[in-house]
Amino acid sequence: MKDYIEERAIQIANYIIENNATVRQTARQFGISKSTVHKDVTDRLSQINPTLASEARKVLDINKSERHIRGGLATREKYLHRQTR
Length: 85
Description:
The protein has helices spanning about 5-20, 25-30, 35-50, 50-85. By secondary structure, it is mainly α. The longest helix has about 35 residues, at about 50-85. It is elongated and about 50 Å long.
């Protein structure tokens, strides 16, 4: 694996852990695709630093379990703003 990919995977994991970030937020921050973020954290990072990969995975699992709530809140906000016009 190329050195810059390993560095990116570590930076991504640190960003996710420090900011409690979602995959989308992380992808936007680093200017890469969501699938690249996911691949870096799940596959590549587990080979480089399994402990860091586990910590980042915990944050992503929490975000995944809460995403249906966030989606509902976003939809609620959308319709609340639409009714006040």
